[in-house]
Every structure is written in C-alpha cells, then in structure tokens.
Amino acid sequence: MVSYIPKRGDIIWMNFDPQSGHEQAGRRPALVLSAHEYNEILGLAQVCPITSKTKGYPFEVQLPEDLKINGVVLSDQAKSIDWKARETSFIDECPVSTLTEVLSKLLVVIDPDELLL
C-alpha cells in the first residue's frame, strides 16, 4: 500500500525516464500541479520538471532559496505521469505564490481562450 500521495504544490523526486527529444530525463525534482484527489483516484499526476540549469527562458519560474531544492520550474514542460510507477517521493512544499506563477505561465502555453472549432 502506498502511504504518500502527491498533492498540488508538492515538490517531489521522480524518474522522468523514458523520455523523448527535448524532454527532461532521469531522476529529478518536479512540481505537482494536479489536485490530491485526482492523483489518488487516477494514480496519475500533472507535473512540471525542475532543473538547476537556469537559462533565462521566459517559462522558467525560480524557486525560493529557502526550499530544499534550488532551481527553476519548467512551466512549459507540464506532463501527466504515473507517480506510482516513477519512484515518487516527497521533498518539500512550494509556496502558493510560486505555484500561482507556474500555473499562470502554463495558461499562456495552453491558451484556453484560443478555442479550436
């Protein structure tokens, strides 16, 4: 039985392999975007990878320095993952202000106002 279930705002360790093309790979931290109930029921979670290699891209969101993980959230690389199968473990909680910034940048990427009819 699984004792930890990711919730929105958690920073977790997870294995991003297998990957393809420009996707982040390997065991790395990620920010959970999806709600606890979604993650628990479906066994999936929406996450954004975190990298320590800051490049200054517009979709990077800097994590506060007082967290256990340093780096930037890659808000344009959100993906759905099977958190049970990807060796997920809790690291820290992301501040609401940082999570809000990540979600705002993600909305720019998915642009919900541009409906395809």
TrEMBL record:
GO terms for biological process: mRNA catabolic process; rRNA catabolic process. It is an enzyme of class 3 (hydrolase). Coiled coil: none annotated. GO terms for molecular function: DNA binding; hydrolase activity; RNA endonuclease activity. The keyword Hydrolase applies. Its EC number is 3.1.-.-. Belongs to the PemK/MazF family. This is mRNA interferase. The gene is mazF.
